[in-house]
């Protein structure tokens, strides 16, 4: 039997309604915050992800959908959206032109991870990237926007925040951390032993309980921030306080991608199991320059759409669609024309086969329609059509003269 690839799935029925509802309304919110839509290709040169996400990250090391195309080019299906947007930003010379640029995007991402609940190999992100502003007001704006999105859909969440420092203070912290971890090598897992050499701050993020216990007493980035990073982080917390946005400071929050500097954040839900991160992001002031562009500060985020769909409470009747059928085929032309008029305001499904009332109601229910309209001899005599509201459970005759 033909099957979808492991970790990849079709989205249909109520999930596809929720999917479109989420993308549509998140896009509206992003536009209100001044973000414009950008569409970048799903595949990019592998080197782009290696350089931006980082050679030592799990994403690049273990999870890339990488292949050589027919022209011999080393290509990768995007594991995330930021790298492609930054590539486009540089390629289109926005860095040279200067000014502020804000983009939002959504689409498939690919990571060859071990599939489990909430973790897929093909998944969707809704994300935003803002370029040209170093003031932490922009970080606050981004956090407020994500919160607005989750509040719109009634999704409960906790905001976790940390500062990862900059190129001035991060190396001092890394050295202090390496010194601390070197002494604990025997107890740390094999992966963390490798991380000490490749990317020691990822040890702070290890899920193994022995490693978690050790890092409880490790040096903390917050204590090692330079004065500029410390001031920025304090300012960010103040702005969030002033705007009554609740957060938790998580000193071990490091994120799985290497490009972050300064503020990093995650939104988590306690209603969806172990894959609890529903959004992640932060500042990445060095990435544009690192990829060959003119130095430009930037900050952004991405929401994991599949994880959020689980949390959106919505029933398909909310689309208020109409099912319309007839008791005798001779009335089909009439209901077909009537459907055309009804479609000006609603989604309408026409049943072409004549059926009895009970079967029409079943058909309407199967299509998750809110209203079931049925036309028969009696209704024609009264120049009307029978209608049942399947949510409120009431029925009435509606005059055909009104259409
Ligand atoms: P990320 O934390 O790797 O960040 O991913 C963002 C979100 O995508 C996660 O919080 C999660 O909800 C979802 N996600 C990640 N992996 C999977 C998976 N295998 N299955 C289902 N959902 C998943 C980024 O990707 C950054 N590009 C975010 C960013 C934008 N930072 C700055 N700008």
Structure report:
This protein has 403 residues and is of the alpha+beta class. The protein has 16 helices and 16 strands. Strand 12, helix 14 and strand 13 (348-350) form a beta-alpha-beta unit. Helix 1 (13-32) packs antiparallel against helix 6. The protein is elongated and about 90 Å long. It starts with 12 loop residues before the first helix and ends with a strand. The mean pLDDT is 95.
User: Low-confidence parts, pLDDT < 50 over ≥5 residues?
Assistant: none
Note the total helix count.
16
Question: What's the structural domain tally?
Answer: 2
CATH topology group of the largest domain: BirA Bifunctional Protein, domain 2
Ions, cofactors and other bound molecules: histidyl-adenosine monophosphate
What is the topological layout?
Blueprint: H1 13-32, E1 36-37, E2 43-45, H2 46-53, H3 58-62, E3 65-68, E4 74-77, H4 82-91, H5 94-97, E5 101-110, E6 122-131, H6 136-152, E7 158-163, H7 170-182, H8 190-198, H9 209-215, H10 221-224, H11 227-242, E8 248-249, E9 261-268, E10 277-283, H12 287-290, E11 298-304, H13 305-309, E12 322-326, H14 332-342, E13 348-350, H15 357-366, E14 371-375, H16 377-381, E15 384-389, E16 395-399
Parallel strand pairs: 1-5, 7-8, 12-13, 12-14
Antiparallel strand pairs: 2-4, 3-4, 5-6, 6-11, 7-9, 9-10, 10-11, 14-15, 15-16
The chain binds histidyl-adenosine monophosphate.
